[in-house]
Design goal:
The chain is an alpha/beta fold and 149 residues long. It has a single domain (2-148), classed as Phosphoglycerate mutase-like (Rossmann fold, 3-Layer(aba) Sandwich). It is built from four helices and six strands; from the N terminus they run E-H-E-H-E-H-E-H-E-E. It has a six-stranded mixed beta sheet, with helices on both faces. Helix 1 (24-39) packs parallel to helix 2 (53-66). The protein starts with a strand and ends with a strand.
Amino acid sequence: MKVLIVRHGEAVKGSPDASRTLSEAGKKEVSELAAKVAARGFSPVNVVHSGLVRARETAELLALALNPADGVMEGEDLGAEDSPVPWANTLADMREDIVLVSHMPFVANLAGLLLDDNSAEEVHFSTGSSLCLERRPDGGWKVLWKEKA
């Protein structure tokens, strides 16, 4: 089982924060990221996002390239300041590949929690970047690859 952890693309400035859309540069970077991930053959069952507009738009652009079987959906506990523990527990029981689109520091915190080795350098996320992790037979996780537009 693989999880692709994605930080949303660059967003426009403004408020309220929850309504900020992707900038033109953000749309471009996510489209490029999506093409790179698709070229790797990654085929998730769905793309789950935090519910904020920029995360939803990022998820929709990824879905255009990845064609997830169950589409795009809003998920719980994916906010910037949410604890990564509920998702770590959910992922431990999953059997199908998934994409999670969220924000800093959540994406870095989730990656750091899942990685049980000295992979601290693997958990930096700029906008429009991703980290693909695969669950090992022992239940731990390993880094498969990183992508950025």
